[in-house]
Amino acid sequence: MTYVYEDGIEGFEAKESRLYTMSRKGTFFGIHYREEADPLTKFISVVKGRGLDYVIDLRKDSATYLKWEEIELSEENALAVLVPAGIGHGFLAMEDNTMQFFAIDKSGTDGHSKQLNYTEKKISLKLPIPVTDISDYDLNAPFLD
Protein backbone atom coordinates (compact mmCIF):
# COMPACT_ATOMS: atom_id res chain seq x y z
CA MET A 1 0.00 0.00 0.00
CA THR A 2 1.21 3.47 -0.82
CA TYR A 3 0.02 6.53 1.04
CA VAL A 4 0.56 10.13 0.04
CA TYR A 5 0.82 12.61 2.90
CA GLU A 6 0.46 16.24 1.96
CA ASP A 7 -0.02 17.67 5.45
CA GLY A 8 2.45 15.62 7.45
CA ILE A 9 2.16 12.22 9.06
CA GLU A 10 -0.08 11.93 12.09
CA GLY A 11 2.00 11.06 15.16
CA PHE A 12 5.36 11.75 13.48
CA GLU A 13 7.27 14.96 14.06
CA ALA A 14 10.82 15.09 12.72
CA LYS A 15 13.34 16.17 15.37
CA GLU A 16 16.47 15.52 13.28
CA SER A 17 17.14 14.93 9.62
CA ARG A 18 20.18 13.84 7.68
CA LEU A 19 21.19 13.39 4.08
CA TYR A 20 23.38 10.39 3.28
CA THR A 21 25.26 10.11 -0.02
CA MET A 22 26.21 6.65 -1.23
CA SER A 23 28.84 7.26 -3.87
CA ARG A 24 28.90 3.71 -5.24
CA LYS A 25 26.22 1.38 -6.50
CA GLY A 26 26.11 -1.58 -4.09
CA THR A 27 26.66 0.45 -0.91
CA PHE A 28 24.71 -1.16 1.94
CA PHE A 29 23.56 0.61 5.10
CA GLY A 30 22.08 -1.32 8.04
CA ILE A 31 20.40 -3.35 9.45
CA HIS A 32 19.58 -0.91 12.26
CA TYR A 33 16.60 -0.94 14.59
CA ARG A 34 15.20 0.35 17.84
CA GLU A 35 13.38 -1.87 20.34
CA GLU A 36 9.75 -1.13 21.13
CA ALA A 37 10.58 -0.37 24.79
CA ASP A 38 12.47 2.74 23.63
CA PRO A 39 10.70 3.72 20.41
CA LEU A 40 12.07 5.82 17.60
CA THR A 41 10.42 6.22 14.21
CA LYS A 42 12.38 6.78 10.99
CA PHE A 43 11.21 8.39 7.76
CA ILE A 44 13.30 7.46 4.72
CA SER A 45 13.17 8.63 1.10
CA VAL A 46 15.56 9.03 -1.82
CA VAL A 47 16.14 12.50 -3.27
CA LYS A 48 18.67 11.49 -5.93
CA GLY A 49 19.31 8.15 -7.60
CA ARG A 50 17.68 4.86 -6.68
CA GLY A 51 17.89 2.33 -3.89
CA LEU A 52 16.18 -0.63 -2.29
CA ASP A 53 14.88 -0.14 1.21
CA TYR A 54 14.56 -3.24 3.40
CA VAL A 55 12.24 -3.41 6.40
CA ILE A 56 12.56 -6.47 8.64
CA ASP A 57 10.17 -7.37 11.46
CA LEU A 58 12.31 -7.95 14.56
CA ARG A 59 9.43 -7.99 17.07
CA LYS A 60 9.65 -11.45 18.65
CA ASP A 61 5.93 -11.58 19.50
CA SER A 62 4.83 -10.64 15.97
CA ALA A 63 3.18 -13.05 13.52
CA THR A 64 5.58 -11.69 10.88
CA TYR A 65 8.76 -12.02 12.98
CA LEU A 66 11.86 -12.18 10.71
CA LYS A 67 9.82 -11.50 7.57
CA TRP A 68 11.04 -8.67 5.36
CA GLU A 69 9.92 -6.48 2.49
CA GLU A 70 11.85 -4.65 -0.20
CA ILE A 71 10.66 -1.24 -1.39
CA GLU A 72 12.25 0.65 -4.27
CA LEU A 73 12.82 4.30 -3.44
CA SER A 74 13.91 6.76 -6.10
CA GLU A 75 13.76 10.38 -7.09
CA GLU A 76 11.36 9.31 -9.86
CA ASN A 77 8.78 7.44 -7.76
CA ALA A 78 8.99 9.84 -4.76
CA LEU A 79 7.98 7.10 -2.31
CA ALA A 80 9.00 7.11 1.34
CA VAL A 81 9.07 4.53 4.12
CA LEU A 82 8.06 5.08 7.74
CA VAL A 83 9.88 2.60 10.00
CA PRO A 84 8.56 2.19 13.57
CA ALA A 85 10.35 0.73 16.60
CA GLY A 86 10.93 -3.02 16.42
CA ILE A 87 11.36 -2.97 12.66
CA GLY A 88 14.86 -3.27 11.20
CA HIS A 89 15.95 -1.06 8.36
CA GLY A 90 18.56 -1.58 5.65
CA PHE A 91 19.27 0.19 2.39
CA LEU A 92 21.09 -0.84 -0.80
CA ALA A 93 22.14 1.84 -3.31
CA MET A 94 21.24 0.76 -6.85
CA GLU A 95 22.99 3.69 -8.57
CA ASP A 96 26.16 5.67 -7.99
CA ASN A 97 25.70 8.89 -6.00
CA THR A 98 22.36 7.93 -4.49
CA MET A 99 21.19 10.39 -1.83
CA GLN A 100 18.93 9.20 0.98
CA PHE A 101 16.91 11.57 3.17
CA PHE A 102 16.52 10.26 6.71
CA ALA A 103 14.44 11.86 9.49
CA ILE A 104 13.83 10.65 13.06
CA ASP A 105 11.35 11.68 15.74
CA LYS A 106 13.94 11.92 18.57
CA SER A 107 17.01 14.11 18.88
CA GLY A 108 20.52 12.94 19.61
CA THR A 109 22.27 9.63 19.54
CA ASP A 110 21.75 8.00 22.89
CA GLY A 111 23.19 4.53 22.28
CA HIS A 112 19.85 2.72 22.25
CA SER A 113 19.89 1.80 18.57
CA LYS A 114 20.72 -1.80 17.82
CA GLN A 115 22.08 -3.48 14.74
CA LEU A 116 21.88 -6.86 13.05
CA ASN A 117 24.19 -8.38 10.47
CA TYR A 118 22.69 -8.17 6.98
CA THR A 119 23.89 -11.72 6.21
CA GLU A 120 21.83 -13.21 9.09
CA LYS A 121 20.64 -16.60 7.76
CA LYS A 122 17.36 -16.51 9.72
CA ILE A 123 16.36 -13.49 7.64
CA SER A 124 18.00 -14.42 4.31
CA LEU A 125 17.82 -11.05 2.59
CA LYS A 126 17.86 -11.49 -1.18
CA LEU A 127 19.97 -8.67 -2.54
CA PRO A 128 19.82 -8.29 -6.35
CA ILE A 129 23.41 -7.03 -6.62
CA PRO A 130 26.57 -7.65 -4.57
CA VAL A 131 27.44 -5.35 -1.68
CA THR A 132 30.42 -3.24 -2.80
CA ASP A 133 30.73 -0.91 0.20
CA ILE A 134 29.68 -1.31 3.84
CA SER A 135 30.96 0.29 7.02
CA ASP A 136 32.95 -1.80 9.50
CA TYR A 137 30.18 -1.01 12.00
CA ASP A 138 27.58 -2.72 9.78
CA LEU A 139 29.89 -5.46 8.48
CA ASN A 140 30.71 -6.54 12.05
CA ALA A 141 27.13 -6.27 13.36
CA PRO A 142 25.99 -9.16 15.55
CA PHE A 143 23.83 -12.08 14.47
CA LEU A 144 20.63 -13.23 16.19
CA ASP A 145 21.05 -15.46 19.24
UniProtKB/TrEMBL annotation:
Protein name: dTDP-4-dehydrorhamnose 3,5-epimerase
Gene Ontology annotations of biological process type: dTDP-rhamnose biosynthetic process; polysaccharide biosynthetic process
Organism: Treponema bryantii
Any single Pfam family the record assigns to this protein: dTDP_sugar_isom
Annotated EC: 5.1.3.13
Source organism, top-level taxon: Bacteria
Gene Ontology MF terms in the entry: dTDP-4-dehydrorhamnose 3,5-epimerase activity
UniProt xrefs under InterPro entries: RmlC-like (IPR000888), RmlC-like_jellyroll (IPR014710), RmlC_Cupin_sf (IPR011051)
Entry function: Catalyzes the epimerization of the C3' and C5'positions of dTDP-6-deoxy-D-xylo-4-hexulose, forming dTDP-6-deoxy-L-lyxo-4-hexulose.
Catalytic activities: dTDP-4-dehydro-6-deoxy-alpha-D-glucose = dTDP-4-dehydro-beta-L-rhamnose
CC per GO annotation: cytosol
